[in-house]
Amino acid sequence: MANQSIEHPPLKLLVTGGAGFIGSNFIHYWLAQYPQDSIVNLDLLTYAGNLANLTSVESLPNYQFIQGDICDPMVVDSAMTDVDIVVHFAAESHVDRSIMDPDTFLKTNVLGTHTLLQSGLKHNIKRFHHISTDEVFGTLELGRHDQFSETTAYDPRSPYSASKAGSDHLVRAYGETYGLPYSITNCSNNYGEYQFPEKLIALTITNLIEGKKAPVYGDGLQVRDWLYVKDHCRAIELVLLKGQDMTTYVVGGLTQDVSNLEVVKQIVKLMGLDESSIEYVTDRPGHDRCYSVNWSKIKNELGWQSSVNLEEGLKKTVDWYRAHPEWWQPLKEKNQVYFTKQYAGGIQE
Ligand code: NAD
Ligand code: TYD
């Protein structure tokens, strides 16, 4: 499920946050597609960064890992040496953690992005690609079937989405003001292998494997668009190699609204369980009701569309988590404090 590879002179990519979920999937994808290119992975290894995601590439001569903070100009400047393209994934990425502790979101997502932009400009890079989210657009009304697109006004409603919105604005400001060539993708909820088991799909699957319940916030009728992570990597590839500078694309995986409850029910069924495995828990404050994206621009301009539907993607994801308890069990154990605090509200009356 890769794109046909696109010819280009050898490139040096600086991938930030490459030890996280999407970044590590992207590194695997890119090095398999383009073994002539080289990748420097700059990652702080926060709770979400995990070098176990990258063991099969770590000894390749065209791959280098640097442990460091994107907010540190010295580290960033040194990582930027001879870089052609920056692919910027590094961020604090979980909405619930942003509600508990917004400070690091502002620092990493806004100031960290700014540090990278300054350095990218200084080093004359050919493209700064910023990975953003559909959450910057705020929330849609449930049942109206409206969709976000590249022209939707920003209206972020959580500390996470506000910090990502700030970073998007800075990227565009560096393009407009200083001429830094950039591209931005605002993608929907990703899922698939190597996702930290705090996000809905990974948490549901791993809880069910552990014999625990799947926690659904509120009434579970919230809608998200779901994008299989490898389809997302294919989209980024096309934007980097075929997309114009100074362009934004929204990227999504579905064409129909699917509620969280339906997603959880599908997983429960795939795992041979029944709905007694679902537990309705206290809702998230300011919970966005509905995200839905119109991804016709990337389809029409770059010929991208998702290739894995939700049913197939969930099956692949369930199979992967079942086969890799050694990957996710230690993460859940190490992050017990977070899980206990997050789910302390308990079952909803
Ligand atoms: P993740 O939380 O799994 O990984 C983030 C990575 O960034 C980790 O490896 C972490 O160590 C690293 N990092 C964090 N702070 C850093 C810092 N200060 N310096 C260097 N590295 C740092 O995130 P993800 O799910 O892979 O998301 C990647 C990007 O995609 C993020 O920018 C996120 O906002 C965006 N995004 C994610 C989703 C999704 O569903 N996961 C959807 C839309 C957009
Ligand atoms: P999440 O995976 O945290 O992604 P995001 O908040 O960025 O969309 O959550 C996806 C949806 O699932 C969101 O509507 C919140 C909901 N959710 C639950 O119902 N239960 C949970 O335990 C979690 C983590 C999320």
3D structure, described in words:
The termini are far apart. The protein contains twelve helices and 13 strands. The protein has a domain at 12-190 and 228-252 and 293-307: 3-Layer(aba) Sandwich (Rossmann fold). Helices cover 40% and strands 16% of the residues. Strands 3-2-1-4-5-6-11 form a seven-stranded parallel beta sheet, sandwiched between helices. A two-stranded parallel ribbon has the order 7-10. Strands 8-13 form a two-stranded parallel sheet. It is of the alpha/beta class and 349 residues long. The mean pLDDT is 97. The structure holds nicotinamide-adenine-dinucleotide and thymidine-5'-diphosphate. Thymidine-5'-diphosphate binds at residues 95, 189, 199-200, 203, 215-217, 222, 224, 260, 284.
What is the level 1 CATH name of the domain at 12-190 and 228-252 and 293-307? Alpha Beta
Helix share of residues?
A: 25-40%
How far apart lie the N and C ends? Answer: 44 Å
The number of helices is 12
Provide the list of bound ligands, each named once. Answer: nicotinamide-adenine-dinucleotide, thymidine-5'-diphosphate
Q: How many beta-strand runs?
A: 13
Strand order of the largest sheet: 3-2-1-4-5-6-11
Main attributes of the structure:
16% strand; Rossmann fold; binds thymidine-5'-diphosphate; 349 residues; globular; alpha/beta
Short overview:
The chain has twelve helices and 13 strands. With 349 residues, the chain is an alpha/beta fold.
Please describe the topology of this protein.
Elements: E1 12-16, H1 21-33, E2 38-43, E3 63-67, H2 73-79, E4 85-88, H3 95-100, H4 103-122, E5 127-133, H5 159-178, E6 182-187, E7 189-191, H6 200-209, E8 214-217, E9 223-224, E10 226-228, H7 229-242, E11 247-251, E12 258-259, H8 260-270, E13 278-281, H9 296-302, H10 310-323, H11 325-334, H12 336-342
Parallel strand pairs: 1-2, 1-4, 2-3, 4-5, 5-6, 6-11, 7-10, 8-13
Antiparallel strand pairs: 9-12
Helix pairs in contact: 1-7, 4-5, 6-8, 6-10
The structure holds nicotinamide-adenine-dinucleotide (NAD) and thymidine-5'-diphosphate (TYD).
